[in-house]
Every structure is written in structure tokens, then in C-alpha cells.
Amino acid sequence: MILHIGKRGFRAQRTYDYLYDPVFTVSAETDHIQESYKARESVDYVIKVPEFNSMFSELPHYPHFTLRLNPVDPVPSFIDRRWRGHAEQRRETLSGALPGVQLHKPKSEDVTGEDRWKFFKRPLVRFAQQIPDDVIFALTKTDSHITQQDSSERMESLFQRTVGIQTDYRESEAQTDPFSPEYKLHPGADIPEILSLATFSWGHGLPAGLDEVEMIERARQKRVWEATLPPLSDPTQLDKRKRMINEMEAKEWAFREQEIEKLQQTRLALLVRFLQERESKQNKATVHRLDEHFSKLQREKEKRLQKIRNNYALSIRKLMAKRKMLEGKLTRQDVITEHLDYGSQMYAPLFPHGDVPDRHSQSDVIKSHLFDTYEELLELEAGLPPSVQEPQIKTQRPKKIKGFIRRSDRREFDLLKTYQALKDKKVQVVEKKPLRFLYRVEKPVHRPPTPEVDVPPEGHEEKELAVIFLQKLIRGTAIQNQMLEGVEKHLELILEMRTTHSLQREEQELQRADKQVTQALQRQHELTESRTAQIQSFVDGLSGEVIADMLDFLSKELVRLQEERRIHAYMLLAERDRRLREAEESGRRQVEERRRREEDEIFRQVMKVHQATVDLYLEDVILNSIDQTAEAQAREEIHQFAEELNNITYAMEEMRNNEQSEEIVAQLVYSFLIPEVQKVAVRERVKQSQRRHLHAAHALIHDTDSSSTSPRPLSPASRASTSLLSQIVEQVEEASHNSDPENEHTD
């Protein structure tokens, strides 16, 4: 149970659950003592006591209440504060020593569970002071069962009493299970044999059967055997005791094996019975299913047969209709012929044409032997009452119209009503006011004159009688003609009635002779027809067998040819499918090979690019390193050469004079100007040679005379440059000539 404790959260259990809750269990007595200490230290012992002087104060140094310990112990004095494990251990020890014996049975009126604390009375005596936590009073050690029993008896004496009542029901009707009274065992008393049945209950061992009786007998034998066992105090009999115990265990194991085998046999018998029942149910279900299937097939068969019969009747009618119209001419319906023919559709309409005959017309026909002969008919007529022979015809009274009235009847009724009103108005006499003192004397009404009939002339009555006689004669003749026509129409029926109800023996004998002759002729005709039918059936059978064999052979040949063509078509389709698959496979193979070659080429190109990239990278690295090394080495050499040249130059500058300086300048000018002048002269000579070739080409093209061609004079710029070049060359040559002797002299 989870309890809510203000704003501080939730507590998993209550403070005194270790005392009141029978389900609360601790592992040892130490845990029980810890739970008691926790209960002592709980906040339930602290109460708030208000201060009267500062009850409404909110100041911290003037509190409106103080905390004090509650002097009242919340646990009553009769509650056992000891650990319940000792009593449980003692009970388990006793139950092990006395198997099957119930030592204590709690009463049904005892309150148990989580609400048990509500049924205890708190003491009225208040403690003067709170018991310290380190003080534990010694309690008297008594049996928990006896204490609980005494307390329950004391509670019963205070709050309960037994009252007898009387009911309208018998004990067998009101009681469901037999009553089991409580029992007590006095210390030192022998255990009665009846306690071996304490574990039995109604429906579980009770009422006792053969198995329970056998179990009781085995328990008796076991108790007798236990009495014959040697005591444990005699060490010389220990082997014998052990041997007897082993023999008893072997017997018990054999008995258990027999019980197990018996149980297995029972289960096997039940299994066989269940299997047989299941097989019988399956067989019944199968038979029922087969019957339903057979009835379904029978219904389908009847439907097919009915359909075949209907189709047969329809075909016969169609053939008869075609036979009537062999020439294909349409015949007009002859009403007179149909009326004269009593077998036509006028008297007996056909069902397929939409006319439904009375199917139950023969249900009211009376079949009796009294209708066979005339004497029997007379006998039947003599037995009938006179009311049947003399029918009474009664006129039908007009029906009273209720509810809906037709318009014509309503109009007629209105006209009659109007006519009656007009008639009453005409007949009505206006009454005058009676006189007050005089009374009118009414005169009797005059009698109307007697009507007179004119006397007919002479001969008129004879004529009227003659006309009446002629009318009777004509009517009689008409009735006679109708009777003759009826006789002609029903002549066959009259003849049939005469044949069946003939009164003369001679006619009957003649009819018998005619009948015999007719039967003889019929037999002869039937014999001839049967012979002809046999011959025809034999011929038809032979021809049918030949035709059937031939048709069978032809049908088989046709089937074989169709199968051969089908197989050939399947073979062609399979061959075409194989070729298509081979073509598709070759195409896929070529595509795969081409894709593989492309991938290989791509791989080679990629690897080549990678290799070239690596080579270029290495080459760049090597060239860069070589360039850097060469550049560094060249710089070092140039620096060295420049230092040496500077040293030589500085030394020469210190040693040279003006002439040497001019010589150096002349050499420099010669090394820079003379090559340029020579280059210009060479270019001019090349241009002149090219120009000469161009003039020759022009001459050849334009057919000009070679003698007329002359070199083109130089331009002024060319002449100036040539003269300047010649002057410079001369000066240089002079300077060189002048410098040669000096050099030789210096040398």
C-alpha cells in the first residue's frame, strides 16, 4: 500500500504494518527490532501544541505552536510486539512431527487482513511520560495460539452472543458442505486415527470410496509397522531397523509403480475411447457429407433429365410444326374448323402457349364402383334424399352496399330521392288553420269509376292462339335441332357410354366378338411390327457398330493428327524460343564483353593517367630539385667568378692608363657595332638577291625583255646608311691598325 504524506512525498508502507499486517514478513528477528525502532522514531509521536499568547503570530521568535511528544502509545497493550517467526517455526515443527493434523483452525468470525487494526480498542489510561527508545519491557512468554484464542474468547464474551433461530428449511437443503467441527489436542494425548482424514473435504476424498479405504488400510498397516520398528536407543538393532526401512521403501515404490501403471491403463482406456468416439464422429460426418453430395448429384440429375425432356418436347413440337408446313405456305386460322374439332386448342389449350390448365380438376372426381353399371346408378339414386333430386332455386337478394358506392349507383339514388321529394310535394296538401269555434264536416270520398275492357273483335283470339302455337312449334324445333347437334358433337361419348353401359346381351356379345377380332388383329400387327423392329434393330446394330468403329478410327486419327500438329507447333515455338534466347544470350554476351573491354580500357587509361601523374609529379619534383640545385650552384659559381673578375678588374684598373681604356672602349664598340652593321649589310644583300629574283619572275610573267631590266637604284636612306657604315668601318680599321703596334710594343 502507498500512502501520501503531505508535501514530503510517498511512503511505501505504514508505520505498524510489522505488527498488524499478516502478510508483512521479515527475514529475522533483527529486522523486526529495526522496524520497531523506526516506528518509535516516526513523526506520529510528534504533535503540534498551539501557544495561546502567540496563536496568530507569524514571527519566527514568537511561534504560534510548539512540537511535543505524544504521551499516548498508539499500539494497544494486548498486541504482541514479539517477532512472529518463533511461533511459525514452532508450528512447522509440530506439523512435521504430526503429519496430516491441523493444530489450529482460525475462526470464521476473526477479522484478518489490512483492516484488522480497526477492530481493536485503545486504552483509556494515558501514560505520564513517553517510554524512551532504549527501554524494552519484558513480556510474558506464552503460546501465540493460546494467547490469540484467549483474546478471541474475551472479545466474543464482550461483543458477541449466540442466539438460536428457527428456519423453514431443512439442514440438507440449507447446508451445501458437511460440517467439520473444530478440534483441540491436549498435550500428551494420543493422536486419534480420525485425524488422518483431516485433509479430506467434500468432493475431494469425501464421501470415501474404495481408494480412500485402501489408503486408510495402508495408513493403519504403516502405523502397525512403525510400532514394530526397533527403537533408536538400541545400537544393536540399527541394522535391522535400516533393513526394515529399506524393505518398506521398496514396497512403497512397488505400490507407487502399480498405481502409476493403473493410472496409465486408465488414461490409455480413456484415450482409446476418445479415439473411437472421434473416429465414429468422423465416420458420421463423412457419411453425412456423402449423403449430401449424393442428394445434390441426384437433384442435378433430375434437373438435367427435366431439361432433356423439355428440350425433347420442344423439338417434337418444332418438328410437327415444320411437318405441317412442308411446302412453306402459311395457312390462315379457320375458326369454324377449330370449333368443330373438339381436340383443337379452342377446347384444350396448350400450356406452352400461355394457357394454364386446371391441374387439380381430378381432385374432386368421385371414384366408386356404383358408377360402372346402370343398375348400380339406379341403386345410388334410390338411396339419395328427395332434397337432392328436387332442387330448390332461390332468388338472390340484393346485396347491401357498404363502404364504397359507384358513381352510377349514387346518381341513381340521388335521382330517386329527388323524384320522391317532388312526388311528395305534389301530393302534399296545404293545411289551413283550424277554426276556433267551428269544425269542418268532412265528406266521404267518391268511389272512382270501374274500368272497362274493350271486347276484342271476332277472330282475334284464334289468331293469337295460332301465333302462340307456332311459337311453341318453332321453339321445339330449335330445341330438337340443338339436341341433334349435341348428339352429333358428343357421338363418341355416347358410343363409349353405350359400350360401357350396354343393357342388351346381344350387343355385348357382338362387342366382345369385335373386341376379340380387334385384339387378334392387334396381336398380329404387334408380332409383325416386333419382327420388323428386331430385324431393323439387328441391321441398325450392325451398321451402328461399323459406323461406330469407323467414326472411332477417324476420331482417333483426327486426334492423333491434331496432337501431331500441336506437338510440331510446340516444337517450332520451342525452337524459335531457343533461337531467340540464344540471340539474346549472344547479344548479352557481346554487350558484356564490350563492357568488360571498355572497363579494362578505362582501367588502363586511369592507371596510365595515374602513372603519368606520378611520373610528372616525380619529374617536376626532380626538375625543381635540379633547377634549385643548379641555380644555387650557378649562383655560387657566378659569385665566385664575379669576385675573381672584380679582383682582376680592380687590379687592371689600378694598372691601366688612358690608352688601355680607349682600347677597351674600342673593343666594346667593335663587339657591339660591327656585328650589327654586318647584319644590316647581309640583310640588304639578301633583299637585293630576292628583288632580282622577283624582277626575273615579273619579266617572265609579263614577257619583258631581259636587256631592258636594270638594277633599281638605292634609296637615300640606304645610301646614307651605307656611307655611314663605311665610315665607321674605316675608323675601326684605323683604330685597329693603330692599336696593333702598341700591343706588340707592350708585349
From TrEMBL:
Chief location category: cytoplasm
Q: Which GO terms describe its cellular component?
A: axoneme
Q: Which UniProt keywords apply?
A: Cell projection, Cytoplasm, Cytoskeleton
What's a Pfam family this protein contains?
A: CFAP91
What InterPro entries does its record include? CFAP91 (IPR026720), CFAP91_dom (IPR032840)
Name the residue ranges with Basic and acidic residues bias: 734-747
Q: Report the residue ranges that make up the CFAP91 domain in this protein.
A: 165-318
Q: Does the keyword Phosphoprotein apply?
A: no
List the biased-composition ranges (Low complexity). 706-726
Compartments where located? Cytoplasm, Cytoskeleton, Cilium axoneme
Question: Where does the record place the region Disordered?
Answer: 698-747
Q: Is Heme one of the keywords UniProt gives this record? A: no
> PANTHER family in the record, alphabetically?
CILIA- AND FLAGELLA-ASSOCIATED PROTEIN 91
Similarity annotation:
Belongs to the CFAP91 family.
Name the record gives this protein: Cilia- and flagella-associated protein 91
